[in-house]
């Protein structure tokens, strides 16, 4: 098989994620810390930091083998962070600024007497961290769920940061159609880095015959890139690590575009490119 490979101009970690990981790297040089749950929804990134000395813990235990505990990139609800401090631990809070903006926005909407809604995945830790900031907040995954919500005089909507703007706008529109007499405040809290990755895939699609997205298939930013690729008429594959790549899946395809989700380590993308180049040379 012969492959031509091009990388998306913008892929992988955004600036906020790189800055947070740099803080964790600097702290690990002084000794081990305990992660309060997975660092991010990407097994390769979690494994990388296990090898660097980060211990695994649970956000709900309120005790850890190290004095310093780490709030993951997706954040934790305010009450959870408070209880860890009260238990005597030092918090290294790596909550991404985009997640903080969503949490703050949801709090402001509740002060305006809105019914708080988070557009995102119900089984995603980030959605839980955002919705946990506001009493009675509901996570809504799609337009069908939005159309089943009971009436409220006023709805307030924010977004999980990694979802697509198309999905967010679709949920908001479905809610408007279901409850035309309700007031609605919709704050788009999707991450700018996510939009940049989508635009890069759109540019890459003019050349590519297929798209590889480095990252875990269930992670929100990876799903967004897969959806964008398929919307453009291209087959798309989420590949979490080099071991999961089977070049035979690309039989009959010569031009492959490669991008990566928010939390996929750079080494995974490099490994995928190297594997395809080796296969092509062979």
General description of the model:
The structure is a single chain. The protein folds into three domains: 4-12 and 193-281, 4-hydroxy-3-methylbut-2-enyl diphosphate reductase, catalytic domain (Cobalt-precorrin-4 Transmethylase, domain 1, 3-Layer(aba) Sandwich), CATH 3.40.1010.20; 15-96, Rossmann fold, CATH 3.40.50; 98-186, Cobalt-precorrin-4 Transmethylase, domain 1 (3-Layer(aba) Sandwich), CATH 3.40.1010.20. The chain is built from ten helices and twelve strands. It has helices spanning 15-28, 43-51, 78-86, 97-111, 125-131, 143-147, 165-178, 192-204, 220-231, 266-281, and strands at residues 4-7, 33-36, 54-57, 68-71, 90-93, 115-119, 138-140, 154-159, 183-186, 210-214, 236-239, 255-260. The mean pLDDT is 94.
Strand-helix topology:
Elements lengths: L3 E4 L7 H14 L4 E4 L6 H9 L2 E4 L10 E4 L6 H9 L3 E4 L3 H15 L3 E5 L5 H7 L6 E3 L2 H5 L6 E6 L5 H14 L4 E4 L5 H13 L5 E5 L5 H12 L4 E4 L15 E6 L5 H16 L1
Parallel strand pairs: 1-12, 2-3, 2-4, 4-5, 6-7, 6-8, 8-9, 10-11, 10-12
Helix pairs in contact: 4-5, 8-9
Structure keywords:
single chain, 282 residues, alpha/beta, Cobalt-precorrin-4 Transmethylase, domain 1, Rossmann fold, 4-stranded parallel sheet, 12 strands, flat
